[in-house]
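Recap for those who missed Tuesday's class. We walked through two folding examples back to back. For each one, the amino acid string is listed first and its predicted structure tokens come directly after. Nothing is annotated here on purpose, so try labeling regions yourself before you check the end of the notes.
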Amino acid sequence: MAMETVTQYAVQYGMQAIVAVGIFSVGILLARWAGNLAQQWLEGQTLEPPVRMLLVRVIKIVVLLFTAVIALDALGVPIAPLVAGIGVAGVGIGLALQGVLSNVMAGLSIIFTKPYKVGEHISLLDVHGDVVMIDIFSTTLMHPDHSRVVVPNRKIVGEILHNFGTIRQLHLTVEVSYKTDLNQALALVQDILSSHAHVLKEPAPVIGVSRLGHPAITIAVEPWAKVVHYGSLQGELSKTIVERFRSAQIEFPAPPVAPTSA
């Protein structure tokens, strides 16, 4: 009896199952072909890599869903109740994944509006670093101490963001005594900056007297450098300035003597 039932179902639905499997197999091949075709076309467009990847995946999923519906219809499955069930399930999943979906929408907003790009230095939400990756869910920053900061995209959209771009300005100061020939000191600083390979010629460095204090004159040294050289350049320039000033016998002010108690 059981064997007859199995045979009956095999005869009744076997051909439908074969057709459905065939349709879905063709759909997989079509999805792969459509994805490759879209990838080749999008590579010629001015789009960020995450956008290209997302669009290719969406095209593949749409083709697979379309062929899956056709395959189920060929198998004899009622399509209307299935679509309604998927819609209800989609609402529930959407409510459960609000945080994830908000990250996705924020990621798309970042990718299309481009408030920053990979390789630029940004500061926001009390963190800063070089942008090393932008994907659909988060943005990854490389901190100056070489640690990684992963920021959810929904935390970025709508916040105040400081984008330094690919260059940063250093803010150095050096104090000299009032006996110093300021023209000589400024010329030395200009020579140091112009001879250093990592100091940018454009924008031009800013050099000048920034403060007349006691007991010293403060000289501001503010050159520009690429983001990758910013950290090391501060120490290199400070060391070179001290050495060159000593060689030129430019005096540094003596530190104030603390009063002694009687």
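Example two. Treat it independently of the first, because the proteins are unrelated.
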Amino acid sequence: MADAIGQVLSLAVGVAISPVPIIAVVLMLATPRGRVNGPAFLAGWLLGLAVVGTIVLVASNGAGATDSDATPATWVSWLKIVLGVLLVLVAVRQWRGRPQAGEAGTLPKWMQAVDTFTPGRAVAMGVALSAINPKNLLLTVGAAAAIAQADVSTGDEVVALAVFVVIGTLGPGAPVLISWFMGSRSREILDGLKAWMGMHNAAIMAVLCLVIGARLAGDGISGLGS
């Protein structure tokens, strides 16, 4: 189980450090429904990661993620290489789209409407940003494939996936915890976090995708050579 958890830690951190969802939660917390919509968004985020991870894990096990001698299946290694290359391409796109000196960072237009969100829409947005967002989807697929490749028991796979989901939720979950435990004092902290992440969103995403993409591709190449 330790090997399976070790395989997904960096991928989970990559999911957790996602500026747009963190900013979305901060904005939701500042609305009249913030005390409900913030946790509702987190529920959707958890659900999205868990569902995608479970589907890929079941499919990987069904397709045979390891060979009879417990070595990684060739297709899993190729999958890691493809995921790694895709993440590197996302990194390049993010870096090219970063704001130049003196320009303000751009954020999705839907964020302007967060004050009108119902709890149901907050849940749906959490699912969309965790499960459908390209970067998170690639990381979750990679994590589930890595767990299946570790050749551990079903119970250990469930634990490893749960660890991935929990760690991947720490980023958007942090503003909610700050709001709960610090009350009115949290506003200054959250506003500062929102401003910093909004300004550096593209650079953060580019570095994360580049590092994790290189790691996945490297793992895949090593698997082909074993």
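Answers for example two:
The CA atoms of residues 82 and 214 lie 11 Å apart.
The helical segments are 2-16, 19-29, 34-63, 74-96, 119-132, 134-149, 154-182, 186-225.
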